[in-house]
Amino acid sequence: MKLTRLVFVIIATFILFVAACSKNDSQQPEKQSEKQEGVKTSAPLTGVEARIESPERAVAVTINNHPNARPQSGLSQADIVYEVLAEGDVTRFLAIFQSEKPENIGPVRSARQYFIDLAQGYDALFIAHGYSPEAKKTLASGTIDNINGIQHDGTLFKRASFRKAPHNSYITFKNIEKGAEDAGYDLSKAPKPLNFFTDEVAGNLEGDAASNVKIAYSQNSTFTAEYKYDAQKEKYTRSSEEAETVEYDNDKPVLLDNVIVIEAAHTTKDGKGRREIDLHSGGKAYVFQKGIMQEAEWKNEDGRILPYKDGEPMKWVPGKTWINIVPEMTIVSFGE
Q: Which residues form the DUF3048 domain (predicted)?
């Protein structure tokens, strides 16, 4: 009788154990799902914690910097912005978005080959309105996923009434996503992350004092870029013609954590003054972080312009980055 009772207890215990395991297993996917929805991860191009639902592809947009296009829309939300000379002494921006999605971006301007090359370094969907003959061939070849205003003017791209062409082409992020879906482009793959300092290390960098930086792209001050370090915010602000670079809609300033200047050979390639810029050979660089400057060398790694010091890749301060590409370092000045 005692043996029968013992067997009964063992069987009952086993049944309860199996039931408990089964319950836990059935609940596990729900717990995992909850964890996925609330996960915090560092954005790959800023190193800043952000709540994201899933990895997303970078989007690179060519943005107008003519005085008639200022202030622009979307620049403050770009993870990385390249400033590069186009024809003459006019600069344009290539703004790379990944961690944020501006409602509106623009004015959008036409493509050049070096903008395409830079966008490819982040496997970005490339957005422009127009193109040079060389850029047109590259885009038509299908080597980079792209959406262009020449084919979508008045549909995906809208003309603002408060500005005149060619300084009035805008695109919303929703229309970028719609255009990508219509074209069958995959937007799910996030770019390879950059290498960032921890906040503690970033606060103890050493170098030459550089709270003011000036880049004179020409003798005309229209396209002179100036950066000032705000010690309280621990960010750089940017300005042109003594006007701070802000958002058109809300005057929100562009605030930067890394300002990088690289020297690259520029040559004029046609009668209209279009340029060819050597973004492959490497060269001299200045890296401005936390109000100080460090001299460096830049290298092109799979399309990305990255600074090196003493043969080692430099880390980035978590946050936003602006990269100025200049024909010679003599146009750059800095100090306290």
A: 45-185, 213-323
